[in-house]
Specification:
alpha+beta; 9 strands; globular
Length: about 190
């Protein structure tokens, strides 16, 4: 990907986007974070796929980063951490899942990819009327999540090399981050959902 090429941030709608999502999901949550078993197909379709909205970053029609959100309970975290039910202000607040960025984009442009996806998250949350989002953040990146405004709560979930810290962020708290991102990266494009 050309470093000068603008990144595109959007809600996934196309079959080819979903196929790339399943493959990045596999690379991240099977090969890198051993949360799921390997498969010959090298694709992982999330168990909540039908309910997920995927917020993605594309560069030259290639998936660079993603996260999935859903606002319908039960959340997988509810089964693992009773505190998640108390932390949410409404029973249908937003659940963030499957945050992943292609390894080769985690360096120089990784911050831009992550910031743009989070800016899209803020936009999506406001459009849908959410005010709080929860995530199970990999313990490998706890400091990064806290830097982004996420607040830890409850005990760790998962096991072995796949441990996660439940965290939440208010969309109000992330509003200034979206404004800062848009000011710093005027060439980034946000495509409105259809």
């Amino acid at each position: 990907m050309n470093p000068q090429e603008p990144l595109v941030f959007k809600v996934a709608t196309e079959d080819w986007e979903f196929e790339q999502i399943h493959r990045l999901n596999y690379r991240t949550f099977v090969e890198e974070i051993p949360q799921h078993q390997p498969s010959a197909a090298q694709r992982l379709v999330d168990k909540f796929h039908a309910d997920n909205t995927y917020l993605i970053c594309l560069g030259n029609q290639k998936l660079v980063g993603m996260l999935a959100v859903r606002g319908r309970r039960p959340f997988s975290l509810d089964q693992k951490c009773r505190t998640s039910i108390r932390i949410c202000r409404r029973p249908d607040d937003l659940r963030i899942r499957l945050l992943a960025i292609e390894k080769k984009f985690r360096g120089a442009r990784g911050g831009q990819v992550l910031s743009g996806i989070l800016a899209l998250l803020w936009q999506h949350g406001v459009e849908k009327g959410y005010d709080l989002a929860i995530i199970s953040g990999t313990t490998r990146q706890t400091k990064l999540y806290q830097h982004l405004g996420f607040v830890p709560f409850g005990p760790l979930v998962g096991s072995g090399d796949a441990q996660f810290q439940p965290m939440y962020v208010t969309l109000e708290r992330s509003r200034s981050r979206r404004a800062n991102f848009c000011a710093r990266h005027p060439r980034a494009r946000f495509i409105p959902a259809r």
